[in-house]
Amino acid sequence: MTPDRLDAAFSALADPTRRAILARLASGATTVNELAEPFDLALPTISKHLKVLEGAGLISRTREKQYRPCKLELAPLKEVSDWVEVYRKLWEERFERLDDYLKQLQEKDGDGE
Amino acid sequence: MTDDSKTETAARLGIKVIKAVRFKRVVKAPRKLVFDVWTKPEHLSHWFSPHGYNVEGVQSDPRPGGVFKLIMVPHAGGAGFWSVGKYLEVEAPHRIVTRVGGEGADGHIMFEVINTAVFEEQGDSTIIYAAGEVIALNDPAIGEMAMAGMDEGWKQTLDRFETELTRAQSSKKRAAK
């Protein structure tokens, strides 16, 4: 995935409606009308969200059929979550070291327990 | 105020967040000490890197606009990774905000984050609310972003870390009871 593409994926995921759309698509491909149902949004608004998701490569839409079902694309999601997980783990390790270091400091000062 | 909202700095500053990771940790140490360890160069060098890395060349001037800069150097040798930025907000001893860029060996900025830490006293412990809000992401190379080489050794370290974390967390939970 190119940097622009990953950035687009992150931006697309920043919106709660779009995340909800993806969550719904996780249980299978569906049409725009079906997608719009649970949301209190006009079809053009849903279409706008779908365009963003499609631009980010997170969903695909069949061209040939008139009702153009939407399908979830898993690869970009995987890459996004990989990066975030790595970043999260960096901080988890820092916290672990911080914890150890605070213990050391307080033992040394003799004011720990 | 929810836990998350304590560290939602970027939104307040009108900066778009690409992705945020938020943490809540309780450490058995007085808040003043936690604040010092979080900001003083002689302390930062002891913890501000993942396992397998040394922190070197720490510059930290905890005042708004003050510099925050250090390099994480792998024990195994090879290029280090810079964290370069500045303090945006400092309210001793309870709140610190930095804006930091992660730079690769050749000096290009891989990503930019706003780091927020809020410290609250809880008896003789301190609750740390921390967040890394990613505001720019310029390089999808997961390996590179993962601080130096997401090589096999680093991956194994992460695996071990996960195991240790689970163990440490369960023993911490027990200790908290």
Structural commentary:
The complex is a heterodimer of chains A (113) and B (177). Helix content of chain A is 66%, strand content 5%. Chain A has 113 residues and is mostly helical. A seven-stranded antiparallel β-sheet of chain B has the order 1-7-6-5-4-3-2. The longest helix of chain B has 25 residues, at 152-176. Mean pLDDT of chain B is 80; it is low at 140-166. Chain B starts with 8 loop residues before the first helix and ends with a helix. Chains A and B meet through helix 1 and helix 5 of A and strand 1, helix 2, strand 7 and helix 5 of B.
Q: Structural class of the secondary elements of chain B?
A: alpha+beta
Summarize the amount of helix of chain B as a percent range.
Answer: 25-40%
- DSSP, total strands of chain A: 2
Approximate shape of chain B: globular
- The string of secondary-structure elements of chain B, in order, is HEHHEEEEEEHH
Distance between the termini of chain B: 26 Å
Mean pLDDT of chain B: 80
Backbone CA Rg of chain A? 21 Å
Helix content of chain A: 55-70%
Order of SSEs of chain A, N→C?
Answer: HHHHEEH
Query: Number of DSSP helices of chain A?
Result: 5
Number of separate helices of chain B? 5
Report the principal-axis shape of chain A: elongated
Q: Which two chains touch over the largest interface?
A: A-B, 37 and 39 residues
Please outline the major beta sheet of chain B: 7 strands, antiparallel
Number of E strands of chain B:
7
